[in-house]
Amino acid sequence: MTATTADQTGTDQTGTDELGRLRDQIDQLDAEIVRLWKERAGLSKRIGEIRMAEGGTRLVLDRERAILEKYRQALGEDGTQIAMLILRAGRGPL
């Protein structure tokens, strides 16, 4: 008997088990990303409230540019799009 067995459809049980584990890990990461996204958005909104209460603007363009660049450098052009969504979540649309 071998360490892996195939079912009638030819699916390797070890592969199926690994897929399940990997999908579970992705689900856990997705939950953490959502949690962090919400936490970051809340912090960003609070910063905007403080800035406006002190007579400042809702957003600081230099800060946003720096964040966009940080994500672009780390993740390429997709990083820019991700950063735009993250910024929007915290400050709302422009």
Question: How would you describe this protein?
Answer:
With 94 residues, this protein is mostly helical. It has one domain (14-91): Chorismate mutase (Chorismate Mutase Domain, subunit A, Up-down Bundle), CATH 1.20.59. The chain is built from three helices and no strands. The chain has helices spanning 13-53, 61-75, 77-91. The model is unreliable at 1-5 (pLDDT under 50).
Quick rundown:
With 94 residues, the chain is mainly α. It has 3 helices and no strands. The protein is elongated, with a radius of gyration of 21 Å.
Tell me the count of domains.
1
Number of distinct helices: 3
CATH topology: Chorismate Mutase Domain, subunit A
Helix and strand run: HHH
Portion in beta strands: under 5%
- Class based on secondary structure composition and strand pairing: mainly alpha
Instruction: Give Rg in angstroms.
Output: 21 Å
Largest sheet: none
- On the 0 to 100 scale, the average pLDDT is 89
By DSSP, the count of extended strands is 0
**Broad shape:** elongated
CATH 2nd-level architecture: Up-down Bundle
Residue share in helices? over 70%
CATH superfamily: Chorismate mutase
- The separation of the N and C termini measures 64 Å
- Can you tell me the CATH class? Mainly Alpha
Report the uncertain regions: 1-5
